Automatic annotation (TrEMBL), chain A:
Heterodimer with ALG14 to form a functional enzyme. It catalyses: an N-acetyl-alpha-D-glucosaminyl-diphospho-di-trans,poly-cis-dolichol + UDP-N-acetyl-alpha-D-glucosamine = an N,N'-diacetylchitobiosyl-diphospho-di-trans,poly-cis-dolichol + UDP + H(+). It comes from Penicillium alfredii. Involved in protein N-glycosylation. Essential for the second step of the dolichol-linked oligosaccharide pathway. It is found in: Endoplasmic reticulum. Its main location: endoplasmic reticulum. This is UDP-N-acetylglucosamine transferase subunit ALG13.
TrEMBL record, chain B:
Pfam families: Alg14 (PF08660). The gene is ALG14. It is a single-pass membrane protein. One of its GO terms (biological process) is dolichol-linked oligosaccharide biosynthetic process. It comes from Penicillium alfredii. GO terms for molecular function: N-acetylglucosaminyldiphosphodolichol N-acetylglucosaminyltransferase activity. This is UDP-N-acetylglucosamine transferase subunit ALG14. Its main location: endoplasmic reticulum. The lineage of its organism: Eukaryota, Fungi, Dikarya, Ascomycota, Pezizomycotina.
Amino acid sequence: MNSSAKSPTTKLCFVTVGATASFHGLLQQVLDLHFLATLSQFGYTHLLIQYGRDGRSVFETFLANNPSERHGIIVEGFDFNTAGLTKEMYRTRADHERGTGLVVSHAGTGTILEALRLGVRLVVVPNPDLADNHQEELATVLDKQNYVIRSSVQNVAKAIARAESKKYRSAGPSSQEAAYTSAALKDQLGFLD
Amino acid sequence: MAFTFPWGLLGVILVSAALLGVSTIAILILALTISHNTAVAKCRPKHTPAHLLVVLGSGGHTTEMLSMLDHMELDQSLYTYRTYLVSSGDSFSANKAVEFENKHKPDAPATAHTNSYSVVTVPRARKVHQSYLSAPFSTLECFWACLLVLRGLHPDQPRLPGKFTSPYPDIIFANGPATAVCVMLAAKLLRFLQCIHRFFSRSQSPRIPRLRTVFVESWARVRNLSLSGLLLLPVADRFFVQWPGLGGRRAWWGMQKTEYVGWLVL
């Protein structure tokens, strides 16, 4: 059924729920046969999940009940990585015959910035349990400007389909803006003309 | 003899307390407005070294700050001394600061490098989940520690290299964390006291600008300023924002506005 044994082509979806706050809602949405079927439909072969400090039991229970022969997706996971997620994110980008993979992430600023720097395709899912609504605002404006796709927890599977046809905008480095700020800093020193 | 309550005296006390309160606020607003509208005195001789104080803080602030500094490519021959301010218990930020310094190490011998920066730890202004009842006390504690740092008296601080004639940092650069509020208010207080002192000593010679403050609102803030940002709006000498919707804001009429500069952190 799955050709991954013969052919080396892979298409990876990497899901990160964040290291600090738990985000079981997102974990439950992606550890779901409907979500896996959607992945399969769009040619994905692998699902990698960073499930956080307290997500291990949810993850392992699902894996035990749903071996990969049943849905055709190879599911792997880890709790968190103190060295950052650059490597995992980068794995989704590698140009394969099946097309570029995808990162699904909580709305943490650090993760979003890292994804934009690497130029990976990103779906941002704000955590509704967190009181801070500025994460929500950030995700919305980045979606509007086509840098990412913003999705609610319930509609993550639909976001996979949307990501397939989305024209992602890539963000350039901040060098020009930073040079302006750097000059502003120097202005404050009051050097003689 | 019957005791009559001295209503007249109480009235006098209340009125003078109110007057004192109102005039304090008026002086504060006036001082902040004057300070905000005074141009930087251009009296620093060329090629004098500068001392930069960078405020780090957990919750993404450190990562944003260091990537910003990375892009800003600050002139190492100008900012020859850097102080990194971190909150207690935040070893992540302290390590990142050292990592950053090592990455940007000039080709000079290592011995010359060790005395070009320091990492100073101050008490946290408000811990996550700390009650708002005890927060004012820990904020005061943080403020006091910041005053010590600015005056070069904090135990974590080694002696500044000899070419620095003042313990005061020249520029304080920060983004969101609560420590930024403490250190920038402390800087403003020191500048105010300096100004009063100059007034009474009738000093006329221009003073080299020090303790200047530059604040950058976090990239994650799109439509609303953070609490730190709101508090520092009338305080910071330059206030940069990274989303257009936050540009042009000011604390009150006659104050400098926030400047939209685009993304600094990518």
